[in-house]
Amino acid sequence: VTFRMREDDDDSLRDQAREEGERSSREHAERERVQKLQDAEAEAEADAARVRAADTERRARQDAEYERVTKLSEEAELERVRLEQVAADERLVRAEVQQRARRVSEEAELQRERLEEAAEEERCERAEAEQRARRVSEEAERQRARLEEAAE
After folding, report:
1. Distance (Å, rounded) from C-alpha 53 to C-alpha 59?
2. Does residue 74 sit within a domain?
3. Based on the number of CB atoms within 10 Å of its own CB, is 62 exposed (0-12), middle (13-18) or buried (19 or more)?
4. What is the pLDDT averaged over residues 10-34?
5. Quick check: is 130 in a domain?
6. What is the distance in angstroms between the CA of the first residue and the CA of the last residue of the chain?
7. Which domain holds residue 48?
8. 148 in a structural domain
9. How many domains does the chain have?
10. pLDDT bucket at 62, cuts 50 / 70 / 90
């Protein structure tokens, strides 16, 4: 009976050892499975972090491009305004030049008219002076003729 008890105890110990081994094996397999899940989760987090980093970089590039385009657009707008101002200034200068040219032309026309009037007045005065000189000469001639007649 004692031997059998020992045998039963040995069987029981073997069963316990086997169960312990199986349990240990299951625990080891579970730890490996948990470790694999944790590794997969860590890899997924790393992938997500890389995706977020790539998104952040892409957004940063887009923002930089947007800023560059915005700056170029603002510069183009400033240049357009500057060119419009230059064109407006040119129109003003052109209008002033045309106005001055009209004034000079009008002044030249007035000067020409004054010169023509002065020339006409001078011709009239010369004609009147010549006519007076002829009358004086004719009168002098008549008086000389009278004096000669009276002297004879």
Report:
1. 10
2. yes
3. exposed
4. 86
5. no
6. 219
7. 7-115
8. no
9. 1
10. very high
Other Cβ atoms closer than 10 A to 143: 10
Q: Is residue 33 part of a domain?
A: yes
Q: Which amino acid is at 113?
A: E
For residue 21, what pLDDT is reported?
A: 87
- The 8-class DSSP code of residue 56 comes to H
Neighbours of 14 (CB within 10 A): 10
Residue 30 backbone dihedrals phi, psi, to 5 degrees: -65, -45
Residue 24 CA to its chain's centroid (Å): 76
What contacts 77, CB < 8 A, 6 or more positions away? none
Q: What is the pTM of this model?
A: 0.44
Mean pLDDT, residues 68-92: 98
Closest to 10 in 3D by CA, of 18, 25, 26: 18
